[in-house]
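Discussion board: Methods & Data

I've been asked by a reviewer to show the raw model output for two of the constructs in my manuscript, not just the figures. I'm not sure how much to include, so I'm pasting the format here to get opinions. Each protein appears as its amino acid sequence followed by a line of discrete structure tokens. Is this the kind of thing reviewers expect to see in a supplement, or should I convert it first? Here is construct A:
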Amino acid sequence: MIRLLGVFVWIVPATIWYGGRMILSGLRGSTEPGCMCRQGPRYWARQLLWISGVDIAFENIEVIDPTRPQILVANHTSWYDVLALSALPGTYLFVAKKELAKIPIFGRAIGGCGHIFIDRQDRTSAVESLGVARDLLENESPTIIMFPEGTRSKTGKLQRFKKGAFVLAVQTGVDIVPAAIIGSHEVMSKESLKITPGTITVRFGTPIPVEGLGMDDRNELTERAQAAVRELQADGAPSDQEIT
């Protein structure tokens, strides 16, 4: 309960501070690696993790290549999944549900810095959002982060993947990087506000190439990526390497 209180006390002023600076950075069109649009989320997440007593460990992080575009797909059981992935190297952009855009300061900050909101209930709007992601992948070199389950799992078990990330991969020819986030459900589950200190491990798998695939292959690609994430979840106990 003390950690939860600490988060509540910290999160408003920190969001105002970092969010305000991100908004200014976005208005200026700054995209340099050291700009607040790129570093703000890392600072914000790092401090929140520290208050929560949570460490992040990366396994096989070398598959993340900051010099080329990639689409990272991961399981989703907790808000702490986002915080864990905020420590990724290079330029990354989240595809987030549109409801987050309504959060004061926070929504404008991440939207102004290029993160993409998607309306899961409106197919036309969702297609337009994926079009924005496609343009970014074709013209820049970000890691686009997507949670293909569409929402957090209540039980921690992997849910069926939706196809949006894999349609995007086929359209752009960008490799899929599967990742398993292990331990975040124990830190904070969807059904609880309790924060339990611990270590969240992000285990990255071998990138899945999409070169030569067409739209007829999207279902098979979706199933292959889901199987890869499931295998990563089951692949032995987490190690202690690359703790942030």
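Construct B, same format:
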Amino acid sequence: MLIFGLVIAALLGPLYVFLNLERRSLQRYAIGSATAVAGAAITPLVMGRCGFTEGTSGVDHLLSLTLMWGAAWIALIALRSFFDRADGKAKASAAMAGEIRTGGYRMGWWVPWVLLSPTLLILVVFLYYPAFRTFTLSTKLTKLGAPRSIDVCFGNFTELLILNPAKLVAYPLIAIAVIYGARFWMNHSGPGTWSRKGADVASVVGMLAIFVAMYLMFSPGGGGQVDYRDVYVNTLIITVGIVAFGMIGGLAVAYLAFRKIRGGSAYRTLLIWPYAISPAVAGVLFFMIFDPTAGIFTHGMDVVFGIDVPNYRESAMLAQGSIILASGWKILGYNILFYLAGLQTVSTDQIEAAVIDGASSWQRFYKIVMPALSPITFFLLVTNLVYAFFEVYATVDFMTKGAPAGKTSIAIYEIIRVGVNNGDLGRGAAQSVLLFAAVIAITLWQFRTTGSKVSYGGA
């Protein structure tokens, strides 16, 4: 299997050169092949070929090959930047490599690196090295306080996935095929036609196919496997709810608060202040509001309306809704702040022209305000997703502690529960690496899809 991985990497190099470089030659094909093989060979050397040893499963082989080909791809991206610079396509980005002139002074190429060295040192010590240590820890079976650890290679990852390697390969390939099929349909259909409407539906189906494929790839539990499929579903539901509530609510409130009213500055300041509190405090506040025995909301509903509000910790829907409400309220002020700033950049001339043309309030909002706010909306989409993935642990811990029956146990809560509370550092590190990779993939996907539709100014 190791030889197979290196052979595929050797073929990947010339293919990448053919698809991404305008100037192609036999020498460049050979350099691309050698670079891809060198990149692919790094991971088996670092990990000691553990994914291909006797007794490992097909899923271990698949994860090892994926890691090898990912390293080869990264090496080819670096090679492309080298070729682009040699072809004269990277003059702007290569400015750091030459002499820099500012006014009457000349600085060498090393001056920016010296100025950046404190920041780079902090990043290496507090970000890159801990990330590397987390990955190495994810390949071990180790307990908190235990004197020794055992190398398990990809064992902590394979127990989170289904055991059939053929299905692990098939599910994402089917989703990718649906996405590219929808894109091909979109490119070959005219605007305003029924074919384009069908292509739009196919694009949505392609997007959903990714999440369905991921759902099918995670293990449902049993047979020594971890039931990570439920954690994935919980994370998806709560994350989408937080982002939707925070962004839609933030835009709606900001749009209303932007109007000229008496005391508007103080009113807007009060709208923003919830962002200043921590997620733990938000969890405590909403716990005090919705607590079934002494909560303000439950007591008020009982006294005023005579309604017996059910215990939110005993209902999956109510528990997830309470987490979404508390976390969305916490991030609401952050979104309002940015949307208020963005609304100040909307052209009043365009609004007035639309009013003269007879456009309704909704048409003005949809056709003028929303496109003007697209850069801020894209930025908030990324930051809200990061918040929903990483910063809601304290809210979940104070309000539900994963109840009922683990229906609010999202990925970040599961990582801390397994790695810290249970002391299983290796499994917790594996889940954190998985979450980190998922966030990177989603962010890159947003930049490739949503980011391309953002309009900056008159561009």
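Answer (T.O., handling editor elsewhere):
This is acceptable in a supplement if you add a one-line summary per construct. For B, something like: Residues 92-97 have pLDDT under 50 and may be disordered.
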